[in-house]
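Ticket #528: bound-state structure for zinc ion.
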Amino acid sequence: MRRAALLALLALGLLACAHLAASLPSQSAVLKRKRGKKRAAAEQRQLAERDWVAASVQRYLSNQELGDWLAGFEKRCKAVAKLSTIGTSAEGRPIWALEISDRPGQAEAEPAVKYVGNVHGDEPTGRVFTLALAEWLCANHKTDPRAKRIVQSMHLWLVPTMNPDGFERRSRGNSQGQDLNRDFPDRFSSPAMQPSGQEQPEVAAMMAWSQSVGFVASASMHEGALVANYPWDGTADRSTRYENCPDDATFRHLASLYATTHKRMAQPDNPEFPNGGTTNGAAWYPIYGSMQDWNYIVGRCFELTLELSQNKWPDEPGLAALWEDNKDSLLAFPLAAAYGGLWGTVREEGSLRGSKGREVAPLGGANITVLATATGEEQPAWVLSREGRGDYYRPLAPGRYTVVVSKAGYKPFAANFTVPADGSGAQRHFVLAREGSNWGGEVAHAPRFLAGGAPEDASAAAAGGGGSLLPWKAAIGLNGSGEAGQLWTAEQTRSRDRLVMLGAGAVCVYGLWITHSRLKRRSHPRRM
Ligand SMILES: [Zn+2]
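RESOLUTION: The complex was predicted; output attached.
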């Protein structure tokens, strides 16, 4: 009886294995063929898209042509692009914004960064570079690691022209003759940074949109020099001198990153800025009502003003070379600003959930205050964790710091951390306990599965360890939506699946082997 059962089992096992063996190669051949076809199609597409990049840097498009191009781009690259307008110019022309992301139009626990071109109507290279950047990202986001990271781990917004009326006239100001980069609320004439209501429509649109998205960093594109400019732009007494803002070190770091990644900006033959290609705004010439200072103060957004060509309105045959000069910098800046400093999530303690640990929920509006450890100086960039998702991004220059995470009604938490010089950033996740909670002294801990790298000290370990093992897109919830729950990265999910399959395979082989050896033992005596 038992022998018959064992035999049947063996037969079944053999059948299953034979079936598998028969089906596997043919399946894999089909898969291979499919993959080959897919790859060929992708290559074809890439070839075509490389032409789009080349075409985008041939000449200046009229406003009408630019609108058509953007609409076409959105259709061609709809998986990673969404076109919208942030408002209209004084003469009613649309101010377009192109969102580049693997989930365009969707709110995610990811940082937003923007590039704004053509702020001055007679400085049009930003129109070209934003378009070329969009085309390049669309063409390369499956193959180039930088493009992949940008598309997968952030929302990059491109505004090709903030001043379409000025472009139409080839004038610096808009149709009302107003310089848009002097029209923002200014910290001296309007200390509360309240808009006067008299701002030009282009500026009003930019302010409203910037605040609704909530950018971590941005850059506006200009011409007339070759330099990366950073706050402050103005001085109290209107004198020309270096006026450092509280985040001077971080701004110098970001400006220098742009300049040194640029093909020519940081070269000693840069006529006006031979010493590294960067400048403090007020040290060059003070201005008031600039978009850069407004972004930093009101938007908590680290904005650079990029002067990208010695001449204004450079000749069209030189545009392709100018794009090549800037391409690597344009790719490096958003990643360095968003992920090169301190970033992570803030959550709040929830109710106990079984033995698996505490349930946690995203906590928005928590204040991330960073102090430079060396000087004890506060770097007051008032960065807040975002409502609904709890993620935060705090650009920083490499160095050692202390971070204090606080919110009214919660116990504040402090941790030390280091921003490494290699640009990989410091990833920290915090869980705040409610005031009066008896949750021991532990107010922050590493969400499970997120710890990686060697923690620097006990409090940093409690706050989440290093992030060296994680891909750029840390899973915040399973789908980046920021819901409470266990945290898995894609890599961890894959390795878990591999383990499960290996385990199942081992069990199957073991079972067959046992069956086989038992049958062998029993059948031998009879044959002998
Ligand atoms: Zn300008």
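RESOLUTION NOTES: Residues 2-56 form the longest helix (55 residues).
TICKET STATUS: resolved
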